[in-house]
Design a protein that fits this description.
This protein is α/β, with parallel strands linked by helices and 165 residues long. The chain has 6 helices and 5 strands; from the N terminus they run αβαβαβαβααβ. The protein has a 5-stranded mixed sheet with strand order 3-2-4-1-5. The longest helix is centred in the N-terminal third of the chain and has 23 residues. It is elongated and about 85 Å long. The N and C termini lie far apart (77 Å).
C-alpha cells in the first residue's frame, strides 16, 4: 500500500471515528435543529408570570453602581420585557425572607447563567449595606421592608426604589 494513502486515511478516518461515533450514538443529525433553545433564546426561555408572585416586593437598585441600566433593571424586576442587559448584578435577600428569595430566583431564571448572583444575609446586615450604598440590588418582601423600616435605603439619592405587586 502507498505510504501517502495510509497517512491520508489516518487523517480522515481517525477524526471521523473519534467524533462521528459519539455524534451518531447521541442521536446525530436528528438532534440538530430539534432543540428550540440556543445561546440566545435560552436566556429568555423563562417567562414572567404575575401569578408566580406570592406577595408584594420592594427592590432597591444602586444606580451609583449601575448608572446606565438602572431604569432597565427597574423594568426587569417589574416583569417587563427588556433588551439584553450587559451588567452583572448581585442581589441581596434577607435569609429570613423566603418569599423574596423565591422571587429573586424567578428573576434569576429569566437571565443568562451567572448574570445575577443571589446572596443572603441577616436583615440588619443588608439594611446596613443598603444605607451605606454597598450593594447592587436589594430585594425584600414588602412585609419585611415595612417591619424593618427599609425605606431609609430608598432615601439615598443614588437608589432607585421599585415596588412590585
Amino acid at each position: 500500500m502507498n505510504n501517502s494513502f495510509l497517512r491520508w486515511a489516518i487523517r480522515i478516518l481517525v477524526p471521523v471515528l473519534v467524533l462521528g461515533i459519539p455524534f451518531v450514538a447521541m442521536g446525530g443529525v436528528s438532534k440538530i435543529g430539534s432543540d428550540p433553545l440556543d445561546a440566545v433564546s435560552a436566556a429568555t426561555d423563562v417567562v414572567f408570570d404575575p401569578a408566580d408572585l406570592s406577595g408584594e416586593y420592594v427592590v432597591y437598585i444602586n444606580e451609583e453602581r449601575h448608572p446606565d441600566t438602572g431604569e432597565v433593571w427597574s423594568d426587569f424586576f417589574r416583569g417587563e420585557e427588556v433588551p439584553v442587559i450587559l451588567d452583572d448584578i448581585s442581589c441581596l435577600v434577607c435569609n429570613t425572607d423566603p418569599e423574596a428569595l423565591e422571587y429573586a430566583k424567578i428573576c434569576q431564571a429569566r437571565l443568562p447563567a451567572n448574570q445575577m448572583k443571589i446572596g443572603t444575609d441577616e436583615t440588619i446586615m443588608i439594611l446596613s449595606k443598603g444605607d451605606a450604598g454597598k450593594f447592587d440590588i436589594i430585594l425584600l418582601s414588602k412585609e419585611v421592608a415595612q417591619q424593618y423600616s427599609a425605606e431609609s435605603i430608598g432615601k439615598n439619592e443614588f437608589v432607585r426604589t421599585v415596588e412590585v405587586k
